Amino acid sequence: MEALKQYLDLYTAHRDLIDSHSCAPLNLLRDEAFRELAEHPLPRKGSENYEATDIAEMISPDFGLNIADVPLEVNRACTFRCAAPLIQSHLLVVDNDTINIPASLSEQLPEGVELRSLRDLGREEPEFLVKYYGSLASIGNPIVALDTMLLRDGICLRVRKGTRLERPLQIVNILAAAAPLMAVRRMLVVIEEDAEAKVLVCNHTQSVDLDMMDLGVVEIYVGRGAMFDYYEMEESTEKTRRLSALYLRQEESSRVTVDSMTIYNGTTRNEFHTHFAGENGSLRLLGFGIADSNRSVSVLSRIDHQVARCHSDELFKFSVDDHATADFTGRIHVAHGAVKTEAYQSCRNLVGSAEAKVNSKPQLEIYNDDVKCSHGSAIGQLDPLQLFYMRTRGLDEAAATLLLKQAFMADVIEGVEIPTLRERLHTIVEQRFAGTPTGCLSNCAAHE
Amino acid sequence: MLKVKELRAEINGKEILKGVNLEVRPGEVHAIMGPNGAGKSTLSMVLSGNPAYTVTGGEAEFYGKDLLAMPPEVRSHEGLFLGFQYPVEIPGVSMVNFMRAAINAKREYFHEPPMSATDFLKMMREKRAVVELDTKLASRSVNEGFSGGEKKRNEIFQMAVLEPRLSILDETDSGLDIDALRIVAEGVNKLKSADNATIVITHYQRLLDYIKPDFVHILYKGRIVMTGGPELALELEERGYDWIRNQIDGENEGKEA
Ligand SMILES: Nc1ncnc2c1ncn2[C@@H]1O[C@H](COP(=O)(O)OP(=O)(O)O)[C@@H](O)[C@H]1O
Ligand SMILES: [Mg+2]
Question: For residue B102, which residues of chain A lie inside 8 Å, CB to CB?
């Protein structure tokens, strides 16, 4: 309770200040979130769905919150430079949790694509925000409750009916401050009927030596016949903690990819809650995590097949070394009426040391017979015969190991449908396994 | 170039090689024959340094150096090549990247700079021609989805790329139809010179019609029990492995009695 108390107290003491820097639709849900947190103890580590996550511990450092929205000094020119050339995208850089959408970016976007801060949206078009904000994310989830209680501002992407956003929207989130900070983030994505868009979110931490918290909730609505790809990449630091919950609702015949990549991190929990609301929807939920040292990555997914004839394909891969841990809980729920469901789940893990740990827990709940479902989970080491074969061709053990680890991640990277990002990811993963700083971080180091 | 003396080795606590003696000189072709389970593959694995096997006695010298003390990659750099009886599939590692890494590792060992991209591609093209390897295979993952014949050709292709001084080809002929066998054998013959040597491990005499051995050894129960010229292979073909079994086991029984 102690860990949570500092946030509850902060809220009680500064509620008006928080409200004044936000907007009515966001302020509307705070009290309920507060009550939820005040009345229910945080789930203990080891309890169901929290096998590897100690939320209380994660939020226990004395994080500052920028509730008064004061500009923090962020050396963003650097990240801006690093991220921009990677892929052809519409780029938005977010310092901590201060949303600043430049006019130049809004003007770049095609007609029918709107990118706004939640605060602006709440002031200009409150009924739209009220309709969507918080209607997917469950306030019973402590991540959602904490986020909802403390949220000041966030981002909304709306792609109107039949509109196609050609280039991906790339959001570069940066955590940077002079003292430990919790960034409270929120994203709302509304892809209307027959619309199409791709989003790439890169999460970075610049303040290497400080405890940092990235708290975030994403709500995604994908309309009938629409197509949406959401890629999310974490390239943070060992002292970064991340609590993230993504909620997705798909209408009839929509096609969605959600891909979550943890390249460098500290302690991460990523949740995915997806829901088919119309028939013939299809979802690919992909992800990988690479962890060494004392890092830990934890994924919780719940794919909900409520209606008939939907297809979900889930693949997660983790590679752990040293004392790192990876934890996967994947629940697929197929309701009684959801006939002709196809749901596939796979979690593969590579364990590189005796102290590294992997937990993989598939949970299939199927309430009708007319389905095709499968799940598989594998935990293994590199194949000694493959290693030997490569060594007989002259590769030393380190080089062979590197190639095999990269190869292990190859299929999940191949699932990325932005070609330039896919190419870049192969390189990033190679650099990651080789122990060299990847992309942005290496460039930034040069500026220091 | 290779001197093997009284080599003993075990795997999972089971002794397989029980004192193997073998000497190979540049320009020579040796054939090692023997029934299934005799230890032929074990010998090839031990000579190329598979860490799953433990050497329990004897020695092996390669150009005057202690072969058994070298890690597998150094044996490769020093000019030893093993064509696997069962080539290993490595999904996710492309043949091209694999060969580039192999070539450059060897160059690094000899303090040479990495090969330029153009030279590398040119070399790959030339070497592919040696075994008529399909261009498409080079861009695929190592051995993944290759047919049995393609895998064996791919072994000879890698041998061509690495230009070893001593090649051990472990049943490169098994599972090949007659055309594939000819291509593989011709490939091996093209790569033959006065400076390098080949050990072909085979179960059947037919490969030896294409690759003419100077010596034929018969490995049985972890030991070379007979050595002769090409005529030994023909005799073995005619009389079958029972001939060896009767002769050797009979001899031992006689001794024991
Ligand atoms: N991993 C292993 N553990 C125990 N015994 C093995 C292992 N691999 C091979 N052997 C045994 O070693 C013997 C020799 O095998 P091998 O060298 O493959 O023979 P060959 O190639 O002559 O057919 C066989 O009896 C086989 O059963
Ligand atoms: Mg064999």
Answer: 393-395
Which one of B85, B88, B109 would you mutate to disrupt binding with A, by most A Cβ within 10 Å of its Cβ?
B88
For residue A409, pLDDT over 60 is answered with yes
Chain A interface residues facing chain B, Cβ-Cβ under 8 Å?
A: 383-386, 388-397, 399, 403-404, 406-411
User: Which residue is closest to A410 within chain B, CA to CA?
Assistant: B92
pLDDT of A442 strictly over 60: no
Domain ranges of chain B: 2-256
- Give the whole-angstrom CA distance, residue A380 versus residue A42: 33
The CA–CA distances, whole Å, from A248 to A37, A287, A301 equal 23, 16, 11
Residues facing B200 on adjacent strands: B31, B169
Question: How far, in Å, CA of A293 to CA of A3, rounded?
Answer: 25
DSSP assignment of B162-203: H--SEEEEESTTTT--HHHHHHHHHHHHHH--SS-EEEEEES
Ligand 1 site: residues with CB under 6 angstroms? B 11-12, 14, 16, 34, 36-42
Beta-strand pair B90-94/B141-142: antiparallel
ipTM: 0.96
Contact check, Cβ <8 Å, B101/A403: yes
Share of chain A above pLDDT 90, in %: 83
Q: How far apart are CA A351 and CA A264, in angstroms?
A: 17
Q: Which residues of A touch B71 (CB under 8 A)?
A: 391, 396-397
B2-256 has which CATH code?
3.40.50.300
Nearest-CB residue to B105 (from A389, A395, A407): A395
pLDDT digits (tens, 9 = 90+) for B205-221: 888 889 999 999 999 99
Euclidean distance between CA atoms A428 and A426, whole angstroms: 6
